[in-house]
Amino acid sequence: MPKTEIKYEIIKTIGTLATNKSGWKREANIVKWNDGKAKLDIRDWGPDHEKVGKGISLNAEEVAILKALLEDYDPEEAEA
Question: pTM for the full model?
Answer without folding.
Answer: 0.84
